[in-house]
Amino acid sequence: MKSCITYLNFNGNCRDAMKFYERCLDGQLYLAPFSEMPGDYPADAKDRVMHASLVKNGLPVLMASDTMPGAPFQQGNNFYICIAPDNPQELDQLFNALGQNGKVTMPVQDTFWGARFGMLTDQFGVNWMFNFEKPKQ
Hints:
- By secondary structure, the protein is of the alpha+beta class.
- Helix content is about 15%, strand content about 40%.
- β6 and β7 (about 115-120) form a beta hairpin.
């Protein structure tokens, strides 16, 4: 496994929160709003953050995104553990193991950002993301 990173969700204030963490943790912030991503998103989502990454010394230390407008959100239960496996086989193995008696929220699939990705909630209510970055061609 390459890394295991905390991934936070926010209800429209991801940009503000991540700028705060950038100042506190003295890192480099990368933001990608929904308006810059492919897909058909509601108009009121355009200014929300689809993905944010806070990097320090070349390594990601925190990632985050906003929920879609109107999506269920509960502060305090708004995080994922994001695993970056070494290869697709490890992703599948970890996804299947942690998903036992849990609930798949996004099946493993290829994504527009060049990764193999999936999400689940395990049997203990912990949210997990799995993201294998495919080698650049």
